[in-house]
Write a structure and sequence with these properties.
The complex is a heterodimer of chains A (243) and B (318). With 243 residues, chain A is an all-alpha fold. In chain A, 80% of the residues lie in helices and 0% in strands. The two termini of chain B are 43 Å apart. Classes of the chains: A mainly alpha (243), B alpha+beta (318).
Amino acid sequence: MTEFGAIVGIVQVVFWLLAGGVSFYFSIGNARVWTSISVGFFLIFLSQLYLLEPSWADYTQLQAVDYIIGTVAIMVMTHGFQEYYVFSRTLDIGGSKLAVYLGTLGVICVSSAFIFINPEPTYTVLRNIKMIENATWVFLAVINIDLIRKIYIQIRDSVISKGFVAFGIVFFFIFLWKGSELYLQVFCWDSDWHIFATNNSIADTFDLYSGRIAFSMMINQAAAMLSALSVGGTFIYLYRLLR
Amino acid sequence: MFLLPKGNPLYENIPAAKIKLPEMLGKLKSGNFTGYLNFNFPTSAAIIFFESGKLISALLERGTTQQTGFEAMAGVCNNIMAGGGSLNVYRLSKDLTMGLHALLHGEMLYRGQEVKLIDIKGLLEKVKAKRLNGCLRIYTEDRSALIFYKDGSPLGFFHDGTQDIDTSASESQKIAGLPGAKIDVLSTKSADELMDYDLLEMVNVDKLWGSTESRYALEMNQMKREGQEREVKERESRLRELEEDLKEVVSAYLGKMGRTLVEKELGSVGGRESLLNENDVTKFLAGVERSAKLLTSLSKLKEMVTTMKDEIAGRTKP
């Protein structure tokens, strides 16, 4: 990784940490809606930690767990937005925060156990898990954008409404970030597949579509950075709105 | 109203509402009372004359209208039930009672005759000759005097500013000498003849009292019920206004969801009536606060809850 890439990685991690921290602050003394969202953002922070130390990717089982944590992150976050949507329609706030914490921990533990009781994941297996993570992110990012739109319609004349517009922007960048990576994976244009194909003398179309691959990679990197920046900015904005 | 000699006061200023009329009349009857009862009600007055325990007449005066007999008794019962007013009971001699009876119920022989235009000496001789039982009233616009007669002989004199019968004619003569003085001559039956008439025998006071009492009880119940209903309606209207104002306050801070939030949280503590209960208000505000945290800032939330508390406290004071 280049020095610039490392700096970008650090910036991303810092912003995801910021998002997780502020959302956790909101969840204190508040309904569990924010608990789910804060746990989600915190898990994204955890899944992005490898950017600080790329050599962790050499531990394939750890890498697999990292992808699973990433998948669980968006699922928990979506759960939070769903609860917020239900609240915005019915004003019902229910459920226990402990259930969110334990549920998330349980899913991660069971998934990790699943990884560890099975053969050590090869790079293709890891790529498959990563694809599942990306597919989940893309699908749930779209779902969340729709939920946020609906929430915004309900609460548009409240203080927090603009914060939800910002969340919409965040999920748009996340959609681009994860979507571009998924696109590359689906067409076997991602770097993992390229390495695998090269090592196993498998023909690929990498050179044939180098233009769109380069474009997709650029979108992926830019959207990853913008996601981190926008999510950090959104939470700082929310903090200012809600303090 | 009725300015009459007081004689020997038995009771004065007894609150009329405390009186059980049948009992009182019964006691006066059994005690062979002679004199009069003077009721002073807020908008009327009544005089009831007794001669030796017989109720010989009753007069109720309300403004310019006068009622006698049964109507007067019924009116007295009504006024007692209505509350307010007082009762004075004065014992008088039979003759004076007769004179007063003449004043209020007697036959008017002369009305408003100018003293200067009549032969007053001749008139008095005529009274004496006819053995008149009754009363002469001599009056100007602002002064008056009464001369009571029995069998044509003066019993005594009564004039403004005194409470009892005077034996001196000087004040009456002074009034008669004033410019524009007039004279009324009223006659009545003798005391013995008056006693032939007993309103207590003719009017079933117990029944009259009982029916008035039950009618008033009904009216009071009706009024009480109407009062309660009005109170409930007023309270309901006050609480509806308060709820509306709370919705306005909350929607000013949270937007349109504020109205729904107030409705929901009020519903969960038992409706707007619960705004009168301190514990329910605490629960209600906590519920609003819990949801509002997801929609607005902590500073605005604090401000909103304080405003709501003030609104509720100010509008639900007893």
